[in-house]
Amino acid sequence: MTINRFDVSNRVILITGAGQGIGRAYAKAFADAGAIPIVADVNAANGEDVAARIRETGQEALAIQTDVSDQGSVEAAVDEISKKYGRLDVLINNAAIFTSLDRKPFYDISLAEWEQVMQVNVTGSFIAAKAVAPLMIEAGWGRIINISSASVAMGMPQFMH
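User: That's the sequence. What structure does it adopt?
Assistant: Structure tokens below.
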């Protein structure tokens, strides 16, 4: 018997920041491959729009308003997933603040803006991974995928954060 390692049929996949951009594309692609995408986004309307468009094609999807910078919000989302599906197979840490940032010298970045970016882009991945780990450990299987931008390696002028 040949096992397709890339078969995601019926896998429950939590995608943070899936209400727009590449996260939206991940949700659609996983749904097309037979997975059940959980569209987690701080913007509830965007998340529900993505999930609704997937459901319109006859595929299953669930939107959950989730703020990855808030441990309670992430834990509530994982609890909802656990109650509905009894498991979580994959976490894709994709949520990030980037396109809404203004280019400016580092000395013009407020501490509040810096902290918000770090809380979402860095700490959010830790919060989400920590929240899903018990489900994956209990199941004896799971995958956590952390996404980052190429700008991390390239460095972009006036985008220190």
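DSSP finds five helices and five strands in the chain.
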